[in-house]
Design brief:
Distance between the termini: 83 Å
Shape: elongated
Largest sheet: none
Number of helices: 10
Length: about 280
């Protein structure tokens, strides 16, 4: 009897066990939600643990804070040089200057690695605040990404050649350095569900072990009481029959002390559980 290829294929599929290939299916009530992707410009990803400090709008602009003429000038004239009455880039420049002063080596230091990192950090935090208000500005988003990558490159260089200064600059600027992973790994639903199932099974195993341990602890007191009675009986019988005594008084006393300790521990746990319920 000749069988057509279609029938052969049908017979092969009928005899073949069904194996799910496209995903991991489990009967356990485990739900997995794909982690939310954090954009690279956000502080959680860039490593900025703090924002730019608020600036007093009455603060004078840079270069005019030590002006002798403004000290004797009218209030209306002074207000013309306040940060709040001038474009925002003056405030940004002031914040950058304050951040550089915290890490510069001397009052005229603006070209060292520390000063460059402080200037970049002020720029990045200013643009991050801007992107929170204007998330659709693609041009500034690209500029911010490039600056974050440039700062990472500088931090990588400093970490390699001067680790003590690297740790100091991270502490001063309130930064977290996040190096790229050694190997890239996709987060898949199948693998995540397998890990969650392993965690669930491990949790069940620990719960069952805890229950079994509890039952064994509850059986310790009656077991010791029975053991003490049998030891006393065996000792008395050996004495009456005049044979060598294998059970000493010290053994019995040791078991009695252990029994007293277990009873005290049981009473303490019961009192603690009652107080927690109240």
């Amino acid at each position: 009897m000749n069988i057509t290829p279609v029938l052969r294929t049908g017979l092969y599929l009928a005899n073949r066990p069904f194996v799910r290939q496209y995903a991991f299916k489990s009967d356990l009530k485990i739900k997995w939600v794909r982690p939310e992707k954090i954009p690279s410009i956000h502080p959680e990803k860039s490593g900025d643990c703090s924002k730019l400090p608020p600036v007093n709008p009455k603060q004078l602009m840079l270069g005019f804070d030590k002006s002798k003429e403004l000290e004797t000038a009218d209030d209306a004239v002074k207000s013309l040089f306040d940060l709040g009455n001038n474009p925002y880039f003056n405030t940004a420049k002031y914040c950058s200057e304050q951040l550089i002063k915290e890490v510069q080596r001397h009052p005229l230091d603006y070209g060292s690695m520390e000063a460059k990192l402080a200037r970049m950090t002020a720029f990045i935090r200013r643009y991050q605040q801007y992107m929170e208000e204007h998330p659709r500005d693609k041009k500034r988003k690209v500029i911010l990404k490039e600056m974050i990558e440039k700062r990472k490159k500088f931090l990588k260089y400093l970490r390699r050649w001067d680790y003590r200064r690297f740790e100091w600059i991270l502490e001063k600027l309130d930064l977290v350095y996040k190096p790229p992973p050694a190997e890239f790994h996709w987060i898949t639903r199948k693998e995540s569900l397998q890990k969650l199932t392993d965690i669930h099974c491990e949790k069940l195993k620990q719960e069952k072990l805890a229950e079994y341990r509890k039952t064994l602890e509850e059986q310790q007191i009656p077991f010791l009481e029975d053991a003490i009675k049998k030891m006393q009986f065996i000792r008395q019988e050996q004495i009456d029959l005049g044979i060598p005594v294998t059970v000493t008084e010290d053994d019995i006393e040791e078991h009695k002390k252990k029994l007293i300790e277990l009873k005290e521990f049981r009473d303490e746990t019961k009192a603690a559980s009652k107080s927690s319920e109240l």
